[in-house]
Design a protein that fits this description.
- By secondary structure, the chain is mainly α.
- The protein has two domains: 94 residues, Transferase(Phosphotransferase), domain 1; 51 residues, no CATH class.
- α2 packs antiparallel against α4.
- The protein is globular and about 50 Å long.
Length: 153
């Protein structure tokens, strides 16, 4: 939650920008920036604005997050500023908007199989780069996921 939500001082779209900063931090860092076992301590950290960054997080990304997770909503970056930030220099936002941006490469293990070790129940398939191999992987992925979600339905 953003400071303005916690304090009940009213909010705007800048609260959504705050949430984007939280999401970016969590996706890259693996945990929440103001994480604590106590909700009161977590809320206190949010209001204080102190952010502890993982050592492996780049300076460019830290700078972006610091400028999003700003206490005063008016001082947070605007979406245009976020999109044009150095961290996103290789992102073609028109391709993102039109859904034509190619997906990033899937991680492969030493045997050229797509690495699925972090996905419970997903088969690993040999990816020879062909569209059929990719379709088979996505088909297996979808089928397994659907079967898990609706097993008791």
């Amino acid at each position: 939650m953003s400071p303005e939500i916690l304090l009940g001082t009213g909010h705007s779209y800048k609260t959504d920008i705050w949430s984007l900063g939280i999401l970016i931090y969590e996706l890259v860092g693996g945990y929440l920036p103001f994480n604590d076992t106590s909700p009161q301590k977590m809320n206190s950290k949010i209001v204080s604005g102190f952010i502890k960054f993982p050592k492996n997080m780049s300076g460019t990304l830290k700078e972006l997050i610091k400028n999003i997770l700003v206490y005063e909503p008016e001082q947070r970056l605007e979406m245009e500023e976020i999109q044009s930030h150095l961290f996103f220099k290789n992102v073609d936002w028109e391709q993102v908007k039109s859904l034509t941006m190619p997906s990033p490469s899937l991680t492969k293990d030493k045997s050229n199989k797509i690495d699925t070790q972090k996905y419970i129940g997903y088969k690993s398939v040999k990816n020879d780069g062909s569209s059929r191999a990719k379709a088979n992987f996505l088909g297996d992925f979808t089928l397994i996921k659907v079967n898990q979600e609706f097993k008791d339905f």
